[in-house]
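thought: fold this chain, then report.
action: predict
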Amino acid sequence: MNSARPTSAAQEPSTAMRYFALACDYDGTLADAGVVSPTTLAALQRLKASGRKPILVTGRQLDDLMRVFPGHAVFDRIVADNGAVLYSPASRDTKILGEPPPPAFLEALTLRGVPFSVGQVIVGTFEPYDVPVHELIKEMGLELQVIYNKGSVMILPSGLNKSTGLAAALAELSLSEHNTVGVGDGENDHALLAFCELGVAVYDAIPTLRERADFTTTRPSSRGVEELIDMLLLNDLADFQPRREHRQIVLGKRSGSDGDVSIESYGASLVIAGPSGSGKTTVVRSLIERLVENDYQVSLVDPEGDYDQLDKFVTLGSPSHAPEISEIFQILENPKSNVSVNLLGISLADRPVYFSSLFPKLQELRSRAGRPHWIVIDEAHHLIPKTWDPAAGSLPEKLSETILVTVQVDSVLPAALKSMSGIIAVGPSPETTILQFSESIGVPSPVRAALPHEKGQVFLWRTDEAGGPVPVQIAPPSDETRRHKRKYAGGELPPERSFYFKGPEGKLNLRAQNLNTFIQLAEGVDDDTWLHHLRQHDYSDWMRENIKDKDLVAEVAELENQPAASAEESRAQVIEAINKRYTAPE
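observation:
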């Protein structure tokens, strides 16, 4: 059991907060014998003054709570009836989150001699009257649940508890459970603590809650809450990390063993690097999928439209339309929404400028709400290039919870690389990729010889850990990488990945940066130029390396192997092969 260390005084929080909400139980936690002391109320007021949101989550009925606690307006939201009622003290609006108890059930309780109270949803009694309550629920075929708390018995609609009520409160405040600390003391607080990023038990909580909490205060009940608030204000609970396994993001299995290799959901930043076609996209998709599965909000900057079909993402931007920054943040205001920013509608030269406008605003949202929890920057060598001075001004001193994806590590701004806590090297020469990274950040490379390369294997090197890179078999995403066709139909491939019609004597230099342009140029070039590239298998080679559509490559390669085909005939067949697989951009 991890116990908290007491603090002597509260200090101002750091500018980069992690926890923006504190969800407190009432009886036995915030209140002693039903009463909140002046010192506890003052601690809540200090918490609120820091910009954080105090939320009360209680099994008490709302009217009863307001009667016994006149200072309830300190809370931004109150979740009463053990998760069934949501109240805003500022607006005095009440939302009922569940169905009230059936009158027939209440009549039956009275006939059985069960003493009870009724809230707007909850029915409360106490042990040993839980026995006839269970019998009645079964006899009447009702979809009700019984929840216990230190001898109290609460009857609620199935599925409602403190966590569901807190989720509704956080949604109204545009906050995430991953930026929330929960504290409690009794049986009905298990759901609350499990839901929050960090779950805290006061010193005199029941043993099972203390065992499952991330840590326990050194003081009992309300004094424990005061202690917790002081630590929040002192350093945002930096000394304590969630210890539950689901707060770790599984990257895959360590090669040659059954052990998982994970990264921290908070505090880590990674480079994912390797040559084109080496499998970086699969690694990125795998990590993103696991982040989203755990309700971490992700903002993905996608210069080449590789990720338009990600599940649970809203994609903004297209080959013909630049994404509006204001639209991006409308999506991100909902903590449950993830956004992919497609930059195909912005020219290659203008993308760093667009990114320099977008990224500071993402950091502003993080300072206000702690989200997006992760920022993924694909093609980082284009968006944060080594030679681009303005990038330094638009980047914070420390990049946290950020993934930089690149084909060339040493082409990325060194200041950004130095913020990374490690690298995932992908492809056939991981030792070279790791060496580039180590030289860029001024740290000796841990690799002294070539690393073995196996299909599906990457190497993870954490710069703050002893030892060399760890070989990892990536856990593949559930929907394997699918290249989005719009990218190749109407987007803009970089110069080094474009096709060039040069002709037999090299007199031309016509660039096709996508398949639409390829078709247009193919229809206009002379027959000698067309046949020159056809007979050298240039078309299928380009498509194999850059379009990565196996079926298209196979069909075009077959056409290239027909030496008797005329320029007119072969040209028409290659264009037809492209057109039947790819459509024009929107």
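thought: worth noting. The chain has four domains: 15-97+160-242, 99-158, 246-474, 485-579.
final: tokens above.
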